[in-house]
Every structure is written in C-alpha cells, then in structure tokens.
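Design request, tokens follow.
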C-alpha cells in the first residue's frame, strides 16, 4: 500500500556529505563548531536566517541551519551545476531524500517560500527573494537526524536515467553583464530559470502517456538492482518532479491526475 510522503531534498558532495559518525545526523556548522546553542529568540533567529541565505559561503560553519529544498527539479539542476562549474565529480554528488514529517512535528523546519510565513518578506528587493522562489528553500534548524533520511540519489544515476523532459547534457548559454566594467561573461552551465523553462516546455509538449512512461522509467532506475531506494519513496520523488515540471500548480488537470497516477502506480 502506497503511503504519501512529504519530501525534502538536500544536495551534498565530498565537502558537505559528512554525517556525525556517532548518530548519522547531518549537523549544522554551528552545532559542529560550538557547544553553546544560539539565543532562541525571534530576533536572533531572524538574523541567523538572513545571514544564512544572503551569505552562504562566508557563513558556512557558523549557521544553526541546514539548507534543503522542496523541489527535486531544483536539486537535479544544482547537482549538475556543482559537477559542471565547481569541479565536483559526478559520483561524489548525491541528493539526500528526507521525510519532512518528523522534522515538521519537531518544529525544526522554516519554509522560506511559504506565502503565509514572514521569511520571504525579509528578502524583498534583493536577489535572494528570487533564489528562495527558485530553490523552494526550507531550512532545518540544528540537524537532520538519521531517522528522517529515506535514501539518496547519486548524480551519476540521474545522468544515466534522466527523464526525457530533462535532457541532462543539454547546455545553456547564459550571458551576464558584470560590474563595474560591464564585461559580458558566459556561464557554462546556465541558470536555473533557463533549465526550468526548457523542462516545462518539454513537459507540456509531451503527451500524458509519454510523461507518465518516462517518470515510471525513472522510478524503475532509482529502485533497480544495486539500489536501496524504497519504491514508495521513488514514486514520491517522481510525483514531486511532475509537480515541479507542471509549474507547481496544485489541482490542475491533467497534471494532478498524472501525479496521483504516478504515486499510486500498481506493480
């Protein structure tokens, strides 16, 4: 019997794939480097979240939060970006698949993209507002416990088995103008917006049957021989991917039916 899951995802590589050897948890930089917890007040948390989002590189090792995403599509793009632009080897890049339910019950999640929460308003007028929208960022406070980790997807498996509407090796030319000399530079990998736009067009152009078939093929690849991914988790990943590729409009037809049929696919 399929059990619907609320999933989150986290991209890790050789620099960040470092769980605590004692309990298997992924701990925030602050927890790893300090024995004293930060002030647990609204203002202190607001300051920590703003610093975490606006300066992730310089803030690494100091933040009480860990970044995750509610979008598997964004994580596929981010994994590819790390391989193409950051010199990471594909087999060293993984997407952790997390069960959001226990983290939600424990009050550990900060859904930055939630329109009913105050977080997005803190970044109005900045580039980080768009970042939050694109990445569907969800912060986990202090640590990701091992019992919330359902599995992981290696980027090599995505390269080999990516759905037809996500041609993983397709390159995008993304020209940006830098300041102050206004010199144009070419980004080899391309922006998430370019990738997302291409994927959504391909997804829309495909027939229902084609999208269903490629998603089920993706599920079969994730749960094939030599993998440890539970099938219901793989189905939930495919359902999340369908939601992202349909523009995230919950309840639309036939996308809602597609997500439900993928999630409830009988074997």
């Amino acid at each position: 019997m399929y059990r619907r899951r609320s999933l989150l995802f986290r991209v890790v590589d050789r620099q960040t794939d470092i769980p605590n050897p004692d309990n298997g948890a992924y701990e925030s930089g602050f927890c790893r480097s300090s024995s004293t917890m930060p002030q647990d007040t609204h203002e202190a948390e607001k300051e920590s979240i703003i610093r975490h989002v606006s300066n992730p590189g310089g803030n690494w090792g100091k933040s009480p939060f860990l970044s995750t995403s509610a979008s598997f599509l964004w994580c596929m793009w981010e994994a590819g970006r790390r391989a193409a632009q950051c010199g990471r080897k594909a087999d060293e890049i993984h997407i952790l698949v997390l069960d959001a339910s226990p983290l939600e019950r424990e009050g550990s999640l900060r859904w930055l993209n939630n329109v009913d929460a105050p977080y997005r308003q803190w970044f109005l007028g900045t580039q980080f507002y768009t970042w939050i929208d694109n990445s569907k960022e969800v912060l986990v406070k202090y640590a990701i416990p091992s019992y919330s980790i359902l599995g992981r997807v290696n980027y090599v498996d995505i390269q080999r088995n990516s759905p037809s509407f996500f041609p993983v090796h397709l390159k995008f030319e993304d020209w940006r103008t830098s300041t102050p000399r206004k010199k144009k530079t070419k980004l080899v990998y391309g922006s998430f917006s370019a990738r997302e736009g291409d994927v959504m067009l391909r997804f829309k152009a495909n027939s229902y049957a084609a999208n269903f078939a490629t998603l089920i093929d993706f599920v079969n690849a994730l749960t094939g021989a030599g993998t440890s991914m539970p099938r219901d988790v793989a189905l939930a990943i495919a359902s999340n991917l369908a939601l992202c590729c349909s523009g995230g409009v919950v309840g639309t037809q036939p996308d809602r039916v597609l997500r439900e049929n993928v999630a409830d696919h009988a074997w």
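Comment from the thread starter after seeing the answer: thanks! The CA atoms of residues 148 and 190 lie 32 Å apart.
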